Amino acid sequence: MLSHFKVVLVETSHPGNIGAVARAMKNMRMDQLRLVSPKCFPHADATARASGADDVLRAATVFDSLQDAIADCRIVLGASARDRTISWPSLTARQTAEKWVGALPEQNIALVFGRENSGLKNHELDLCHYLLRIPCNSEYSSLNLAAAVQVVCYELFVGSGQEIISKVGDVGEEPLATAEQMEAFYIHLQQTMADIGFLHPERSKSIMRRLRRIFNRTQLDTKELDILRGILRFSQNHNAE
Ligand code: SAH
């Protein structure tokens, strides 16, 4: 879903950081990693820090130049912590997500990250349409490389609505009860409360309205409703004995 975003790392010095980037990407369901002249890659430290995201690492493509790495990209964003003397149009990570998360899959977008010690050079930023910024403490604005990738990928993930999709699809999650099921439950509840002598006919309306409010707040799922119906059946049977 986010595969049109290509994470491009320029001349990364520490292989561990490359691994940590792969992990950060996989956490956010991203897998398109491009490396421009990494100092040491492949490397055991990269695999160790990827901790389970070695598939992203294995699929990473290595390029000799930034130009080659972004050749098929239509939009190029250069992530930078520093204020630049020349003013580039800049976007925050969130604005980037808002603008392009829904872009067509063939609309490749490069997210370019710089070196750990010196970031991106001006001639590399010349290849970028936008400066990509992570808003943070202006007196201490340089994040660790993998942390910067993490924040950007997180914004893209949230922007794509996937956190909602993954919640609905959670294992064991039951669908919410329908209005019809809830009405049947309220009738059952009212009947049971009358049977056990709890409900006074003249007070029943206002109590039922309050009970509806309680259940509306909690939004029962079908499994939870089954449990409550089971309790009602049990107390009716018990009462009848
Ligand atoms: N010391 C470097 C920063 C290196 S951090 C410098 O002076 O530029 C490594 C990379 O992480 C940066 O090149 C940039 O791509 C990214 N990064 C770190 N902090 C960032 C921030 N606040 N906003 C955007 N990108 C950031």
Automatic annotation (TrEMBL):
Keywords linked to the UniProt accession: Cytoplasm, Methyltransferase, S-adenosyl-L-methionine, Transferase, tRNA processing
Q: Which residues form the tRNA/rRNA methyltransferase SpoU type domain?
A: 5-154
Q: Which family does it belong to?
A: Belongs to the class IV-like SAM-binding methyltransferase superfamily. RNA methyltransferase TrmH family.
Q: Which Gene3D superfamilies match?
A: 1.10.8.590, 3.40.1280.10
GO MF annotations for this entry? Answer: RNA binding; tRNA (cytidine(32)-2'-O)-methyltransferase activity; tRNA (cytidine(32)/uridine(32)-2'-O)-methyltransferase activity
Q: What does this protein do?
A: Catalyzes the formation of 2'O-methylated cytidine (Cm32) or 2'O-methylated uridine (Um32) at position 32 in tRNA.
Question: Mind telling me what this protein is named?
Answer: tRNA (cytidine/uridine-2'-O-)-methyltransferase TrmJ
Tell me a GO cellular component. cytosol
The record's subcellular location field reads: Cytoplasm
Name a single GO biological process.
Answer: tRNA nucleoside ribose methylation
Q: What is its EC number?
A: 2.1.1.200
Q: InterPro entries, alphabetically?
A: Alpha/beta_knot_MTases, RNA_MeTrfase_TrmJ/LasT, SpoU_MeTrfase, tRNA_m1G_MTases_N
Matching entries from Pfam families are given as: SpoU_methylase (PF00588)
Q: What does it catalyze? A: cytidine(32) in tRNA + S-adenosyl-L-methionine = 2'-O-methylcytidine(32) in tRNA + S-adenosyl-L-homocysteine + H(+); uridine(32) in tRNA + S-adenosyl-L-methionine = 2'-O-methyluridine(32) in tRNA + S-adenosyl-L-homocysteine + H(+)
Q: What is its main location?
A: cytoplasm
Q: How does it assemble?
A: Homodimer.
